[in-house]
């Protein structure tokens, strides 16, 4: 039987151990950085921001300490352009603070040497000691937590293959996905990306790559080419349930113009529509505003996936099929063979035909 003094000592020791475990658990939890002034920006470059084609940036665009901004227009900034002014300077200073916050958080899992494609990651901090590559689809699973935070720490470069996809499922928000990149990030053609990229050097989006999240480059340039950049602006919390209509698409006919508008709802406008898997029928395109249009060039059935992303990075995907059939409208009339006059006289003589004979030539 323990003495009262020993019992009290063991109880105290037990309590201290529990407190230590709680403190350790709390300190390891990942936290979203405070972007400060940079929170209103969709794009910030350190040396320059350049664009080619009809890029759309939702949020402010700025550069500091550099002064070079080009390609707007034809690119569109749905915000304010800050070229080396006091706002851009403060935003860049806040980018440095956010970068350090992300880089200094203890990691849960080391993914060095693995391709992100095909992985399903739960909330936490993931580390690549060198470069990171994404080929295919990466899934962030919030597991029902609307405040789930995902941080990916990358020692050097981040590269995605063409048509790579990042998605957030089970109640999570793209606002809470963060990519800390030790040098430069390059998104491949047609990539559908989610999360804020905070890079020490440069950020490049190849043709048609779209992202729901900020592009923040500390020292280098941000290079864009016919992209959509939707800065996440929500103050926290999870995503609402979005809807994407119609449920099915009408069939098309070869050689005839086709037009069908998609409509997302339930989130924060504006919505950006992107093709994230497979392809439309030949001759048809999907605009960022959600219009499927064009003139089909070949018969057949095409199945594809469309993603609608709202201004807060929340999204919905839907699988569609368009069947291209034969043109049944405006077909050329069938022609009747004509006979020379001598042949016609022979027919009349042979069958004794009389009266008026009308030929269509």
Question: Could you explain the architecture of this structure?
Answer:
The protein starts with a helix and ends in a 10-residue tail after the last helix. The chain has helices at residues 4-27, 86-103, 341-351, and strands at 41-45, 48-52, 56-58, 60-63, 68-70, 76-78, 81-83, 109-110, 120-121, 124-128, 132-134, 137-141, 150-154, 158-160, 165-169, 177-181, 185-187, 192-194, 196-199, 203-205, 210-212, 215-217, 221-225, 228-230, 243-245, 252-253, 258-261, 263-265, 272-278, 284-286, 291-294, 300-309, 315-325. The protein has three helices and 33 strands. A hairpin with a 4-residue loop joins β30 and β31 (291-294). The strands form seven sheets. Strands 7-4-1-22-19-16-13-10-8 form a nine-stranded parallel β-sheet, with helices on one face. The longest helix has 24 residues, at 4-27. It is globular. It is mainly beta.
